[in-house]
Amino acid sequence: MLVGQERLVDRLLIGLLCNGHILLEGMPGLAKTLAVKALAGTLNLDFARLQFTPDLLPADLIGTMIYNPEERSFTPKLGPIFAHVILADEINRAPAKVQSALLEAMQERQVTLGEKSYPLPEPFLVLATQNPIDLEGTYQLPEAQLDRFILKVLVDYPSRDEEIEIMDRMARTSPDALTRMVVDPSALRDSRSLLNAIYIDPAIREYIVDLVQATRHPSRVDPTLAPLLLAGASPRASINLALSARARAFIEGRPFVTPHDVKQLAPDVLRHRVLPSYEAEAEDMTSDLLVQRILAKVPVP
Q: Which residues are bridge partners to 75 per DSSP?
C-alpha cells in the first residue's frame, strides 16, 4: 500500500514490537492514516479508527455509565477504545479534556468508569496522527501525554519517482485493497519475548543515559546549549531508547545493540520530550536541531 516511506514502516514495526504508542506528524495527504490502516490490516487483532474532532467528548472515547431504570443501577457502556489497535486520527484536533481521558489508557492500559477500572485488551497500541501544530484548528498536546509515546515520527514528502508510482497506483476509481492478515497475536508475543534476550553492552547503556542526561544538563556537554533548553527528557526516554534499539537490532537479525541503533532512534525518542526555551524559538532552534547538537557532543562508545 505504501510507496517509499521505509523509515516510517521501520518505526511502526519497532512500536509494534515494543508494545509502545507512536505519534506520526506530517502535512495532510502524506499517507499517515493509510500506513496505520495497512499495518492493522496485517494483524489478526481488533482495530478501531477514532476521528478526533473539537467537539469530541471523553465518553465518546472511553465509554460511560448508563442508568438502568428497571434495576435501578448503572451499567458500563465501554467505548471504542477497547480494541487492540487504535488509530487516533488527527489527535491534536481534540481539546484537553479528551487528551486527559487518554492518559490512563496509554500508561496504565485500563479505563476507569464510575468506581471500577476495566483492563484494556492485550496488546493495546495507540497509533496517533497529527498535523503540524501551526495549522488552523489544532491544539498543543500536553507534555504528560507526549511522554507516553515511545516514538514521534516525522513523515516527509515522497521523492519525484515515488510520487509518480503513487499516482500510478492510486489515481484510479478503485485502488487496490489493503494488505492481508499475516501475523497473529501468538507470533507477536513470541517476537516481543525475544527482545529481552538481545544484548546491550554496559558502555551502550551508559551512552543512552548520557544522551538523556545531556537533555537535562546540557552545560555538561556544551555550555552554549544551556540557555536553549527549557526542559529535558524523563527516565521514560532512557527506557524507550534502550527498548527501541533492541527492536531495531531484532529487525536486522542481530542479537546485540550497536551505538548506531541508538543514534538512529534517538531523534524519534527525544524530539517530543525536549522543550526548547523561548530563546531557542527566537533563534528558530527546533527540538530536532537541539537533539542533533547533543548527539554530536556526547562521545560514542
A: 66
Per-position DSSP letters for the chain, written without gaps between them = --SS-HHHHHHHHHHHHHT-EEEEE--TTSSHHHHHHHHHHTBSS-EEEEE--TT--HHHHHEEEEEETTTTEEEEEE-TT-SSEEEEETGGGS-HHHHHHHHHHHHHSEEEETTEEEEPPSS-EEEEEE--TTSTT--PPPHHHHTTEEEEEE--PPPHHHHHHHHHHHSSSSPPPPPPP-B-HHHHHHHHHHHTTSB--HHHHHHHHHHHHHHH-GGGT-GGGGGGEEE---HHHHHHHHHHHHHHHHHTT-SB--HHHHHHHHHHHHTTT-EE-HHHHHTT--HHHHHHHHHHHSPP-
Of the chain, the end-to-end C-alpha distance in Å amounts to 39
- Assign a CATH topology to domain 196-297: Helicase, Ruva Protein; domain 3 (1.10.8)
Tens of pLDDT along 65-111? 888 887 777 888 888 899 888 888 888 888 888 888 888 888 888 88
Residues of the chain with CATH 3.40.50.300: 6-183
Give the model confidence (pLDDT) of 127-137 as tens digits. Answer: 888 877 666 66
Which residues, 6 or more positions from 132, have their beta carbon under 8 angstroms from its beta carbon?
A: 25, 26, 27, 138
Query: What is the CATH code for 6-183?
Result: 3.40.50.300
Pairwise CA distance, residues 180 & 187, whole Å: 16
- The DSSP line for 16-84 is HHHT-EEEEE--TTSSHHHHHHHHHHTBSS-EEEEE--TT--HHHHHEEEEEETTTTEEEEEE-TT-SS
pLDDT at 244: 94
Domain with CATH 1.10.8.80 in the chain: 196-297
